[in-house]
Amino acid sequence: MKITAIKVFVCSPGRNFVTVKIHTDAGIYGIGDATLNGREMAVVTYLEEHVAPCLIGRDAHAIEDIWQYLYKGVYWRKGAVNLAAIAAIDMALWDIKGKAAGLPVYQLLGGKSRQGVTLYAHASGENIADTLDKAAQLIDQGYKAIRLQSAIPGLPVTYGVLGDKKDYYELQGNRPLPPEEQWSTKKYFNLVVELFKQARERFGNDIHLLHDVHSRLTPIESARLGKLLEPYDLLFLEDASIAENQDSYKIIRQHTTTPLAIGETYNTIWDCKDLIQNQLIDYIRVAATHAGGITALRRIGDFANIYNVKTAPHGAPDLSPICFAAHMHLNTWAPNFGIQEFVGLGNEQVKQIFTSTVTVSDGMAYVSEAPGLGVDFDETAAQQYPYKRSYLPVSRLEDGTLWNW
Ligand code: CS2
Ligand code: MG
Q: Pocket of ligand 1, candidates 18, 40, 172, 314: which has the most ligand atoms within 8 Å of its Cβ, to mutate?
């Protein structure tokens, strides 16, 4: 089965998505997600100018060889743009292979290790009470795991809190230039432990609670936070600190038993190899779109399994329903699957463009038996929502120092 054409689409149903469609001479096509939030057009050009011409005429079934060709063949390996492009091609080829075999991708990976995939949902609020009210609503909907993020008194904007925006798509899709947000670790510490203390008082110990620090603490600050949160038994503390120096997690690990999760910004196994093999983390959160697709996530997941590290794939609003579908097949197969982040199946425009067969009920998600990834992309509907440049914010400390957003 030969690749005959590769098309790249950018649309903005509230926020930008980059979608790849690979056509074959068997009349089967596959789709993949190449969305790199804030740098979408870099990936579009990379795919159209540098990747697509090399793949026309190649065997669409040769997923691994094409992955190696695109990763090693570029010479300039790694990087967010490279691996987002490889990821989209990879997802599309797995979609094609499943369609050709008449099997859902999870069957090609090794079949089901579970019927349903446990989700964690987002509760964010303007204050602790508001955040916990949102969490209570999610618990009533059947979610067994909730990520809590609350606005920080004294800071105009806080990561993960919608503010006056109606949803994440509105929040992320309207940033013509990078907004500058302020960070204060002191103000953050004044709130965050109290948030989880009150959450446990209100909801008891059965519900799983999670929190995303979003890389804003130094290792010793993360160690302190992990220790202070131990009484509240978090499922994991995410992105407690940047780990470009993977050894920095040894400092955190020495001080706390709060489970640690990281990986949504990682592009290859090399970004997390030491964290995993030294068991400095408990969950690896690499995303199919950012870390090289299904082929790569299967490899990273198997490596993590050797060290009792579970998978907890990233599931933010800037990953399209195609990436979510890819995660769902991986999550259904992976013996060491932990939990899947979930921010909903999209707004009405997203659902108009991406037709997914994933179903969600009672805090669990289920893949369908549809061949391939079980998701489709409507090119015509996508044209109604043209690309609109939008950036991620940047963060500064109160003295103006550029910080981690
Ligand atoms: C966040 C993401 O969901 C998460 O865990 O870290 O929403 C992240 O802020 C976005 O993916 C950035 O584009
Ligand atoms: Mg995160």
A: 314
